[in-house]
Amino acid sequence: MWAASFFANFAHKFAWIRNMEYFDFQQLKQILDEKYLLFNTPAFIETDPIQVPHLFSRKEDIEIAGFLAATIAWGNRKMIIRNALRMISFMDNEPYQFLLGATEEDINGIERFVHRTFNTQDFHYFLRSLQNIYRNHGGLEKVFTQGYKSGGTIASAIIHFRKVFFSLPDCPPHAQKHVSCVSRGSAAKRINMFLMWMVRDDGRGVHFGLWKDIPTSALMLPLDVHTGNSARALGLLTRKQNDWKAVEEVTASLRLFDPKDPVKYDFALFGLDLEDKKYLKES
Questions:
Q1: pTM, full prediction
Q2: How far is Cα 241 from Cα 1, in angstroms, rounded to an integer?
Q3: Which residues is 115 bridged to in the sheet?
Q4: Rounded distance, CA 156 to CA 28, Å?
Q5: Where are the domains of the chain?
Q6: How many CB atoms lie within 10 A of CB 172?
């Protein structure tokens, strides 16, 4: 009954998806599940920035490499991967050991690094802040988990993390744009993607499942232009802006299909191509 009400609501809001009444809950779930299984394979790693943390086996190395790769994950994928690997190479390909032992001179001595608007000054601050987190705050997992437990939401986890991350006295204002502020309505795509990497564990070899105290059910969709358009084509998202309210809406829709693991459908929304969406509009 709740499924019928859900689709009636979205069919009414999305009148341009013709004959929506024939596109029922089970059909849509089947599409989402098929795309999830199709793209959620180790082959996905080969062309995705997640390949960077997959180079490591130590938990802390995976976290640091994953966080830095996710931080610069916008633009051309090959460039993202190339620059993320370059970031790791500056740390002698041992990010955790480098951060524990690095002096201020070691960090400031890193040569010029630029990825789009992420510059050398930003990179230096990110390394100092990560160093502070692992030396004085118990690591990335502990900071995010504390934030999650304080408010019971991913939003509270991100807000707390951002407060800790930018707490050093020498924080350049420009660096702050590279960790999204959900309290100002940002969709926080990259940080939600990082959390998805760290928390999800479905045994399929893509995500890591290292963090056990943030439930998979609480994760929020890493919303960007492509996944937003796919969600709208499926009737899962009505909001036009790709902001935090849109993240809340589309994640709530996905929870109807899998309450325990809603963001697994990020694979499905990513995998929907133009022909799929054309079919959905005409079916």
A1: 0.89
A2: 30
A3: 118
A4: 31
A5: 2-39+221-282, 45-188
A6: 12
